[in-house]
Every structure is written in C-alpha cells, then in structure tokens.
Write a structure and sequence with these properties.
It is built from 13 helices and 11 strands. The protein has a 6-stranded parallel sheet, with helices on both faces. 46% of the residues lie in helices and 16% in strands. The longest helix has 22 residues, at 45-66. α4 (141-160) packs across α10 (284-294). By secondary structure, it is an alpha/beta fold. Bound molecules: nicotinamide-adenine-dinucleotide. Nicotinamide-adenine-dinucleotide binds next to α4 and α5.
Length: 348
C-alpha cells in the first residue's frame, strides 16, 4: 500500500455466498475512485492483492490523462466466473461497495458483465456499465476497442509516417469483448490479423466472422508481425517474451502490459519497438462509463475515444523530446494533472 501510495484497501469476505473480494482505492484527488470488478481464479490471495494494487494505480493515471474528473480504484473477486458466480454473491459484493459511500464506483471487467452490474445496482447506486436497455452505457468493449485502434493508428503514424494499417500484419492476443471489436476494425481496414485465445470455440467464431488467422497460444510471441496487440491479461511484455517478439509496435487493451514498467519500457525503446502506453489507449471503457455517470452521452464518449489518437502522438513527441520512454512520458503528464488539481483544491 505504501509502495504505490494507495489510499485504502478493503478485504471483503462472506461465508454464506462464498464471496472473497478486495477493493483497492488508489487516489481520489480528481474525483471518486472508479474501476471495474475483475473475477478471476487467482492462484493465491497474494496474487489477487498484487493484481488489484497494480490495476487500481493504473486507473488513477488513466482517468488523469484522459482529462476525466475521476480517481483510481479497482476490485477483484477471487473465484471462477463460470462456476462461482451467483446473484447473492454479486449483491453481497454490492453491499460492500455501498458501505464506501460513493468513494468507489465499479463497472465490468474480465469475468463480469452487465448482468452482474445489475445485481450490484440492486444494493448500491455506485455502479455503472449497466445494459443500454436499462438506461446504462452497455458493453464497454466496442468503445475500448475504438480507443485502442486510435492509439494503434497513431503509433503507425509515428513509426512509419503513415497511419494506414492496410497490409500490416497484426497479432491480437485475446479476442474477448475488446479483442473481437479490435479485430473487426483491423480486418475492415485491410490488415492481416492473427488471433490467439484460450477459448477454442470463440477463436473459430471470430476467425470466420472477421477473416482472421488462428495461431496457437504459445506461438503468438514468435510471429513475424508488424504489431503485437495484447488484449488478454497483463505482464505479457517481459524479459522472456522480448527475446521472441519481432514487432515494431506494441499497442493493445490489456492493463499493465509491461511486467516492469521501467525495465521493459527501456528495453523496448532500445530495441526500437514503439510502445503505446496501455493506460492511455485503453481508456475507452472508462470514457464510456464516465458518460453514463455524468450523462454526457455516447457521441461525446466517441469523440473522447477518438482523441486518444492525438494524445498518443503528443506522448510520443514528449518521449522523443525528453529522451524518456512513452510510458514515463504519459505518466508524467498524468501525475502533473493530479498534482495541479491537488494544489488547486488545497488553495480553495
Ligand atoms: N472491457 C473493457 O472495456 C476494457 C477496458 C480497458 C482495459 N481492458 C483490458 O483489456 C483486456 C481484455 O478485456 P475484455 O473485456 O476483452 O476481457 P474478456 O474477458 O472479454 O476477454 C479476454 C479474453 O482473453 C482470453 N485469454 C485469457 N488468457 C489468455 C492467454 N493467456 N492467451 C490468450 N488469450 C487469453 C480469454 O479467453 C478471453 O477470451 C483485459 O486485460 C482488460 O482488463 C478492458
């Protein structure tokens, strides 16, 4: 908690529903902490804690760099989302969120969906990502994918002087809510798209629908492609995979793609691989949820997601000018905004 400057961490446990969850609030300078609830079968509670601490910190910087008045938080429920989920478990979790009196607002993430958010809503108003038919912003996957697509095009512009992805070869790891929509954008633009996932049925479906090429999971890092798009889980860019990756750009939706932000960010820069900071280009989901909370509507949300193109180019410019990695450049801009607003609030 002290290492990454978290504000608070709440462990939630309920025997009758089998709920075991952790809510981490990183920073609330800009506004209430917001972050999805991930349900995952973690190997240990320590792994779950590590994940929620990293993810909540990323949310702080994501909101800050996107210009939203929101803080950073995240929740994880320990369990198998296919087997352990129930209405009672989700509603019990909603009660824990309600006890935080609006300091934390949640939405969907890996392993949770709009139905789960509806159960949480039965116990607390501090939840977004509700189905469109019920007045919410619905699935965040499409807008997240659009933001990643914008960030990827900006990366292409920076690396090759032209933002067209037509004819480029792109490996998308994970074709879930975000990955599938990203594959559609890329395929529609004429890219050659390779896909991998743990879910065989989904792979066949997406490959057929969007004319993509299936590759076995273990081969995704060895492909001779222009772009690697991690859209499954974090830390896939590490010392081991960097020996295998041959791409010129890394741009995807997964949170915390770099196992060690400093070490692997620097390695990428030395290798001449352009890295589009994850917390910047995957902000579409947050933008969508913010539109639901603030009532600004879908059109404005799409404009903000489109703006990721420009912000990504600004970050690359700063990275070059200051001789720092794009990740550090993005972090500095986000931290400066938080610092400025903290001062503003202290003086008023
Ligand atoms: N949904 C959003 O709006 C959003 C926003 C920002 C960031 N993200 C991040 O993007 C990533 C994807 O989100 P999503 O909503 O599409 O999740 P999802 O659960 O719908 O999809 C993830 C997919 O990755 C696959 N997968 C898991 N481990 C894998 C592995 N080792 N190799 C290949 N495939 C694997 C899963 O089978 C699944 O199909 C996550 O890291 C999430 O935190 C999502």
């Amino acid at each position: 908690m002290a290492d990454q400057s978290h504000k608070s961490i709440l462990f939630c446990s309920d025997k009758s529903t089998g709920l075991k969850a952790i809510i981490a609030i990183h920073d609330t300078t800009l506004g209430p902490a917001i972050g999805g609830t991930r349900m995952w079968n973690y190997r240990s509670e320590a792994d779950a804690l590590d994940d929620v601490l990293r993810l909540s910190r990323g949310m702080t910087f994501k909101a800050a760099i996107t210009g939203l008045n929101l803080g950073g938080g995240k929740a994880v429920i320990i369990g198998d989302s296919n087997k352990d989920k129930s209405e009672a478990l989700m509603r019990r979790f909603g009660k824990f969120i309600n006890n935080l009196n609006g300091e934390f607002i949640t939405s969907q993430d890996v392993g949770t969906n709009t139905r789960d958010m509806e159960y949480i809503r039965m116990e607390t108003p501090h939840v977004a990502g509700i189905a469109e038919s019920l007045g919410g912003s619905g699935h965040t996957g499409p807008i997240s994918a659009y933001g990643v697509y914008m960030g990827m095009k900006a990366s292409a512009k920076e690396q090759w002087g032209n933002d067209s992805l037509s004819g480029k070869s792109i490996a998308v790891q994970g074709i879930g809510n975000v990955g599938e929509h990203l594959v559609k954008y890329l395929s529609d633009e004429g890219a050659r798209v390779y896909i991998s996932d743990l879910d065989e049925e989904r792979l066949t479906y997406v490959a057929r629908k969007h004319d993509a090429i299936i590759v076995p999971n273990h081969q995704i890092y060895d492909l001779d492609v222009d772009i690697y798009a991690p859209c499954a889980l974090g830390a896939t860019v590490n010392t081991e995979t960097l020996k295998r990756l041959k791409c010129s750009i890394i741009a995807g939706s997964a949170n915390n793609q770099l196992e060690d932000e400093e070490v692997h960010g620097q390695m990428l820069m030395e290798m001449g691989v352009l890295y589009a900071p994850d917390f910047l280009i995957n902000a579409g989901g947050l933008i969508s949820v913010n539109s639901e909370i603030s009532g600004v509507g879908k059109k404005r949300a799409m404009q903000l997601a489109e703006n990721i193109y420009k912000v990504t180019l600004d970050i690359f410019r700063k990275s070059k000018k200051d001789q720092i990695t794009p990740y550090t450049a993005a972090l500095k801009i986000a931290e400066k905004r938080i610092q400025d607003i903290r001062q503003l609030k202290a003086n008023s």
